[in-house]
Amino acid sequence: MAVIKQPNGLWKADVEPIKGKRFRKTFKTKGEAQRFEANCRAKLSQQPDWSPKPKDKRRLLDLIQLWYEMHGSSLTDGKRRHAILTAAAEQLHNPVALAVSGSSVAHLRAKWLQDGVSGKTANNRLAYLKAVYNQLYRLDEIDYPCPFQKVPALKLQERPLTYLTREQIRELLDALDAHPTMPHPAMMARLCLATGCRWGEAQAITPDRIRGGQVTFHNTKGKRVRVIPISADLEKRLKAHWRQYGAFTNCLMTFCRVLESTSIKLPAGQASHVLRHSFASHFVIGGGSILVLQKILGHTSLAMTMRYAHLAPDHLQEALRLNPFDTFSTLSDAEKEKPLKS
Questions:
Q1: Domain count, the chain
Q2: Is 289 helix (H, G, I), strand (E, B) or coil?
Q3: Active site residue 310
């Protein structure tokens, strides 16, 4: 028993280091077969009950389902992410998970882009696929890392944040107030503008979470409780609203229709989230602290909050004071002739 070349050109390792422990495996090259033989002998000399693991032949859909059962089901957007992952696996023709190549994933991403998927969405989908492997690897459900880990995310052009001016906020609120048959969107918009919360967080608020001039958000994206102060007038109006109309309902579509009826034009993909951007932007414009804003918005990373830093009144004002053009233009003719100091 040894390493033997087969008629089909492959190499078969037939190893029995210990009586009763026999292992056979076929390889493309003689070197791979010899390494397998040496590994089996070394492992059994240290651990007599050792045996090589069979090749993991589970397919990508199997891993996605396992990921969902062990981890994904606990995520706020777990069902949505599971559906996205399932669709991606089917587009890849559900290959053996171990054999998914970077090339196949890159080609799939290119197809998404050709079909009109945004770069950000394509990056998110790639990150979701990698997360399946990474999470199962951490849980010891697979013994190999993500096979397409080296596929980089797309570099995207950063877009300027859009926020509503005070005049636009008034126009929007007036338009929402003009729909008395659907009163919830107007009050939810006021709550978002006053606290910087997300639309879904506002929708989940109930009367017991508003007391003492504070509103408590607990079902948040970052899984952290946030307590934000609100004015006495807004607290009074919220409680009166609930007494008259009951708890908030899912009325995002109504908000979007009203927004479209105004003169406000937003970039594609922005609707209710512009309320959160507007709160953050006006907070910074008014001189608010970036660190305080991070806590209010519930960002886990300060880098997310720093997107609003350019709106601060003194942001990069040194560029105006120290740039060579304006500095040179204020010098006298005699000073301009002086040589620069080395």
A1: 3
A2: coil
A3: no
